Amino acid sequence: MKLLVTGGAGYVGSVCAARLVESGHEVVVVDDLSTGHADAVPQGCRFVEADVAEVAGSVLAERFDGVLHFAAKSLVGESMVDPRKYWEGNVVTSLRLLEAMRENGTPRLVFSSTAATYGEPDSVPIPETAPTAPTNTYGATKLAIDQAITSYASAHGLAAVSLRYFNVAGAHGQFGERHTVETHLIPIVLQVALGQRDQVQMYGTDWPTPDGTCVRDYIHVTDLADAHLLSLQHAEPGTHRIYNLGNGTGFSVKQVIDTCREVTGHSIPAAVAPRREGDPASLVASSQRARDELGWTPHRADLTTIVQDAWNFAGLGRPA
Ligand code: UDP
Asked: Reaction(s) catalyzed by this protein (predicted)?
């Protein structure tokens, strides 16, 4: 297939673009490099450095078989203090992309949605039928885009899939996570092991969880990328399917730090810090629908494998 990958210079986008090229697809990446890195765009992709909202129409005027839409603003804390950046950067940009797809007859869309659309769940594991009640602006914008996609699928025949990621981690060889402002747990903990930080702060040890720290479902980025390839094959015209992607096993912040200690051999000092606003206590996916309908099976579900791959990538010493 000939595919447009928006945000293909970012973490998840670059890994998916690499997997698509490895699988023989023709890939065009559009990324404005606001948070991505030009050297993360995989070899074999055509790269257009531009804002998706501005160039979607002209790029899609060439015939494409589908779009994988990763380009987004994704910092929860920032979304609470600068909502315009998120409603415009995520929702307005996605509407422009949907319109460009409609005008040019682009048939398929795979969208990066998020577990943040569910907010504080009533119970875990979370199925796709759980109520959506985002607790932050980031999640609200992703939910709004999901709803717009549903409308476009039913009105205009788009074949669409939204993948709701839980905690993406690990690396795919030379493609991994390097945010200028790092907020994610595993890369922060590994920065301590690399001597780039003195300690990791655990945001709350008084949560209603077995060891008092928050529980999350960590999924390997390569397994996540595989779900995108399967979604392209299974998307059906006029239908918008939503799939949760996680391993179905929760690990606490303390368990993640312990695993990082084992993998790196570093003592990794950890300090107790106040809770972070907007954090749910526990987020664990039910990915049964993705397994049943897409035939998706995670092959790197083990937390040690996820951390080891992230550690190997961190050792490449790429600048943030
Ligand atoms: N966390 C932490 N210290 C950090 C970064 C994150 O204790 O320096 C916790 C955070 O409160 C959450 C978990 O680690 O419970 C995962 O956070 P992350 O930002 O990686 O992903 P999120 O679940 O927010 O998408």
From this structure: UDP-alpha-D-glucose = UDP-alpha-D-galactose
Nearest-CA residue for atom 3 of ligand 1: 202
317: left (phi over 0), alpha (psi -120 to 50) or beta: left
Q: Which atom of ligand 1 is nearest to the CA of 283?
A: 23
Strand, helix or coil at 315? coil
CA pair distance 214, 53, nearest whole angstrom: 36
User: Which three-class secondary structure string do you get for 13-58?
Assistant: HHHHHHHHHHCCCEEEEEECCCCCCHHHCCCCCEEEECCHHHHHHH
- Residue in 202, 211, 217, 253 to alter for ligand 1 test, most ligand atoms within 8 A of Cβ: 253
Lining ligand 1 with CB less than 6 A are 167, 183-185, 188, 200-203, 214, 216, 253, 276, 279
Question: Which residues, in sequence order, are CB contacts of 14 under 8 Å at separation 6+?
Answer: 8, 36, 40, 41, 42, 175
User: Which tokens belong to 232?
Assistant: 């392209």
pLDDT digits (tens), the chain, 320 positions: 999 999 999 999 999 999 999 999 999 999 999 999 999 999 999 999 999 999 999 999 999 999 999 999 999 889 999 999 999 999 999 999 999 999 999 999 999 999 999 999 999 999 999 999 999 999 999 999 999 999 999 999 999 999 999 999 999 999 999 888 899 999 999 999 999 999 999 999 999 999 999 999 999 999 999 999 999 999 999 999 999 999 999 999 999 999 999 999 999 999 999 998 878 899 999 999 999 999 999 999 999 999 999 999 998 876 66
Distances (CA, A) of 264 to 149, 176, 215, 255: 42, 17, 22, 14
Are the CB atoms for 133 and 119 separated by under 8 Å?
A: yes
d(CA 288, CA 10): 28
The most distant pair of C-alpha atoms in the chain lies apart, rounded to whole Å, by 56
In the block, which residue shows the tokens 């765009």?
Answer: 41
